[in-house]
Amino acid sequence: MNVQDQIVADMKTAMKAHDKLTLNVVRMIKADLMNEKVKVGHDLTDEEVNTVVLRANKQRKESLEEFKKGNRDDLVQETEAELKVVAKYMPQQLSDDEVKQIVSDTIKEVGATSKADFGKVMGALMPKIKGKADGGKVNQLVKENLS
């Protein structure tokens, strides 16, 4: 079952269980998917679906940070719960060891030797790991390896 079918099934389950939180999150993701489909003008590929889900996850993480800064514990708890729902639809993430290996291989591949080559490394690296690893972690690993 692909992600879109899973979302529809989970929406039905949440409706029957009267699970408002899950239902709201799933509806928002479904709406984002529909908007993206209209925007691109064709049925979404699995990669495009993953991009939409990753965007929803990133938005909630950013909101969570802002709520923590503002001492809004009520919204922090709600957003953390939403993140757990979104996580079900996220693409499989690479382990830290896998990311380190890909980073070191890419650095060798592009012949990077200093921090000046950072952009070249990231340009070659991001298509390989897009959606499979946290960009912030990858950024940090590249900087560490180029030091």
Helix and strand topology:
Layout: H1 3-17, H2 20-40, H3 46-69, H4 73-87, H5 96-110, H6 118-129, H7 135-146
Helix pairs in contact: 1-2, 2-3, 2-4, 3-4, 5-6, 5-7, 6-7
What would you say about this model in short?
78% of the residues lie in helices and 0% in strands. It is an all-alpha fold.
Can you put this structure into words, describing what you see?
- It comes from Pediococcus argentinicus.
- This is GatB YqeY domain-containing protein.
- Pfam families: YqeY.
- One of its GO terms (molecular function) is carbon-nitrogen ligase activity, with glutamine as amido-N-donor.
- This protein has 147 residues and is mostly helical.
- It folds into two domains: 3-87, Hypothetical Protein Yqey, Chain: A, domain1, CATH 1.10.1510; 96-146, Arc Repressor Mutant, subunit A (Orthogonal Bundle), CATH 1.10.10.
- The protein has helices at residues 3-17, 20-40, 46-69, 73-87, 96-110, 118-129, 135-146.
- Helix 1 (3-17) runs antiparallel to helix 2 (20-40), helix 2 crosses helix 4 and helix 6 runs antiparallel to helix 7 (135-146).
- The longest helix is centred in the middle third of the chain and has 24 residues, at 46-69.
- It is globular and about 55 Å long.
Number of helices: 7
The CATH class of the largest domain, by name, is Mainly Alpha
CATH superfamily of the largest domain: Uncharacterised protein YqeY/AIM41, N-terminal domain
Rg from alpha-carbon coordinates = 18 Å
Segments where pLDDT lies below 50 for 5+ residues?
none
Mean pLDDT: 87
